TrEMBL record:
<feature type="binding site">
    <location>
        <position position="180"/>
    </location>
    <ligand>
        <name>3'-phosphoadenylyl sulfate</name>
    </ligand>
</feature>
<keyword id="KW-0472">Membrane</keyword>
<keyword id="KW-0325">Glycoprotein</keyword>
<feature type="binding site">
    <location>
        <begin position="306"/>
        <end position="310"/>
    </location>
    <ligand>
        <name>3'-phosphoadenylyl sulfate</name>
    </ligand>
</feature>
<feature type="disulfide bond">
    <location>
        <begin position="289"/>
        <end position="301"/>
    </location>
</feature>
<dbReference type="InterPro" id="IPR000863">
    <property type="entry name" value="Sulfotransferase_dom"/>
</dbReference>
<protein>
    <submittedName>
        <fullName>Heparan sulfate glucosamine 3-O-sulfotransferase 3A1 isoform X1</fullName>
    </submittedName>
</protein>
<dbReference type="GO" id="GO:0008467">
    <property type="term" value="F:[heparan sulfate]-glucosamine 3-sulfotransferase activity"/>
</dbReference>
<feature type="binding site">
    <location>
        <position position="188"/>
    </location>
    <ligand>
        <name>3'-phosphoadenylyl sulfate</name>
    </ligand>
</feature>
<dbReference type="InterPro" id="IPR027417">
    <property type="entry name" value="P-loop_NTPase"/>
</dbReference>
<dbReference type="InterPro" id="IPR037359">
    <property type="entry name" value="NST/OST"/>
</dbReference>
<feature type="domain" description="Sulfotransferase">
    <location>
        <begin position="90"/>
        <end position="326"/>
    </location>
</feature>
<keyword id="KW-1133">Transmembrane helix</keyword>
<feature type="active site" description="For sulfotransferase activity">
    <location>
        <position position="99"/>
    </location>
</feature>
<keyword id="KW-0808">Transferase</keyword>
<feature type="binding site">
    <location>
        <begin position="99"/>
        <end position="103"/>
    </location>
    <ligand>
        <name>3'-phosphoadenylyl sulfate</name>
    </ligand>
</feature>
<feature type="transmembrane region" description="Helical">
    <location>
        <begin position="12"/>
        <end position="32"/>
    </location>
</feature>
Amino acid sequence: MGRKLSFSHHHQIRLFLLVILSSLVYIIYLFAVPNFITSFKIELRHSYGSLVGHTDSTDGSEKHTPLQRNASPKYKFLRDENLQASRHLPDALIIGVKKSGTRALLEFIKLHPNVQAPSSEMHFFDKNYVRGLSWYRNQMPLTLEGQMTMEKTPSYFVTKRVPSRVKKMNPYVKLIVVVRDPVTRAISDYTQSSSKKPEYLRKSFADLFYINGTNVVNTRWGIVRIGLYARYLDTWLKYFPLSQFIFISGETLIVDPAAEMKRLQDFLGLKVIITEKHFYFNTTKGFPCLMKSETLASPHCLGKNKGRIHPKIDESILDRLTQFYRPFNLKFYQMTGIDFGW
Ligand SMILES: Nc1ncnc2c1ncn2[C@@H]1O[C@H](COP(=O)(O)OS(=O)(=O)O)[C@@H](OP(=O)(O)O)[C@H]1O
């Protein structure tokens, strides 16, 4: 009887321990797994650490949480060095021009250790302005002291309300404009639009280029209008001095990317780190590619929507376009002091 009692007593203790252990496992599951998933998602969203806590105060200033609080191994170096990372409004903007090589330029300059930039176009000054500057700053990647922040949205160059808004953010911001022969630019833009908008498939370049069967150039067609660089620059120059701009040749960016990158690094006051060594010419793509990108250690070209095959456009239309742009191009050379040779 005594042995029986002690057996059931042991049995009860084991059962009790099992219940405690299962409850513990359940509690750990409840708390730890969601936390793990959340932090994993955050890591994915920001390749360069948004786990460094920061919040926006109502007055728009930014508060930082010390890196020491972040246990992620990614920040070990920063913690060891007692460095703090924070988000800043852009010091430089790639404002345009659409289809001139703005993505290539951004990818190339992002290789510089002192440059941080979001990959996507923020469209802050044209479409998202109501969200406010603190929203814009929150979209920027973290930077350390000595690093500059950059953003590119090519529609800024041609949107009337943008220059005054940019000036309000920072009157000393550096402005980067990539330009390309407006004829090639128009065809590139048309090629992209045809791939996106089905209505373009039913109309040829000629249909859209001339006003209803006449031989009058349709200057209301955005694809033609964007190439009037002198007009848009004129608006920008009402707000910023020419010395705050750099004009990058889209053509040179393809044949000699290192030369344009040297000009850009000098203009931004950066040590020239991106040189010929960073590029190779990919004959299949027909464009320069990077030996390594910001995220990939292997040779890397821009995506397949950059460097598209253009449709054949009638010679007479090309001549007409060239003539049409000529006076505007000359004016642009005069304003910038650069003959782009178009
Ligand atoms: N290295 C490299 N690789 C691929 N493409 C290159 C490169 N350098 C310049 N380009 C030219 O960039 C054109 C696209 O311009 P954007 O990046 O400014 O286009 S966008 O406005 O952001 O849509 C793109 O236009 P398309 O050829 O019409 O696709 C290219 O001609």
